[in-house]
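Input (structure):
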């Protein structure tokens, strides 16, 4: 009696595996893609495929390729290696579905220009390059429960100072925090000094970056004059800066 049941169960399992492997990506998109995101030019299957254009809200992410990790399906945690590309940057990493409202990203890498993010985060016309490395990010019911990593902004050029390079700025958020997620902001090189620089990211994605900034003694006069717009300097010559937004 057990053999027919075993064969039936095996047949059902094989059917489900082939259904997943051959499930057209154009059909799966409506099931798997979260609200606020849209894909165009979808080809392939949910197992392996691509989209010619991806948009998340008002942000054009670029083209997208995905490749499933077969063993992850057997463990009940379907995973895909993803890579989105556009002429001025890319996003890559592994996405893991841990439940209907639980998503995890691992080994997330981002490279982009600040100009390309202007429709997402108000940077007041600031240009430059951004590189991000996030070992682990987890969303449960739309809220961040794990988050940490390193971001470096370099060749920073504020609006109106296109001939001035503010150097490189590093933002580091340690892992193993439960939220809000706090980190430090510091100048790696360039004409600026940053003191008490910090970042705080709330579980809902809202963030604030603030601290004190001053020009180095040999900084270009344009920078010295530009910092005056931040307000009154303290006894050490530092002025407070602050930037808010949402991820």
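Output (sequence):
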């Amino acid at each position: 009696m057990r053999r027919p049941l075993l064969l039936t169960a095996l047949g059902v399992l094989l059917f489900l595996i082939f259904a997943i492997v051959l499930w057209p990506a154009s059909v799966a998109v409506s099931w798997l893609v979260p609200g606020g995101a849209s894909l165009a030019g979808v080809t392939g299957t949910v197992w392996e495929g691509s989209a010619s254009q991806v948009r998340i809200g008002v942000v054009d992410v670029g083209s997208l390729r995905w490749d499933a990790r077969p063993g992850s399906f057997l463990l009940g945690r379907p995973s895909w290696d993803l890579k989105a590309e556009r002429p001025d940057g890319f996003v890559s990493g592994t996405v893991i579905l841990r439940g209907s409202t639980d998503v995890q990203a691992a080994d997330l890498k981002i490279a982009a220009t600040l100009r390309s993010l202007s429709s997402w985060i108000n940077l007041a016309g600031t240009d430059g390059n951004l590189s991000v490395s996030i070992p682990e990010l987890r969303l449960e019911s739309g809220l961040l429960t794990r988050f940490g990593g390193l971001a470096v902004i370099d060749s920073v050029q504020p609006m109106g100072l296109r001939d001035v390079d503010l150097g490189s700025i590093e933002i580091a958020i340690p892992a193993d925090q439960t939220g809000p997620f706090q980190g430090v902001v510091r100048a790696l090189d360039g004409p600026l000094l940053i003191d008490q620089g910090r970042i705080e990211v709330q579980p809902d994605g809202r963030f604030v970056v603030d601290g004190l900034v001053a020009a180095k003694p040999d900084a270009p006069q344009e920078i010295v004059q530009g910092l005056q717009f931040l307000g009154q300097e303290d006894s050490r010559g530092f002025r407070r800066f602050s930037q808010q937004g949402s991820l």
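Notes: The chain has a mean pLDDT of 80. Residues 73 and 177 are 29 Å apart (CA to CA).
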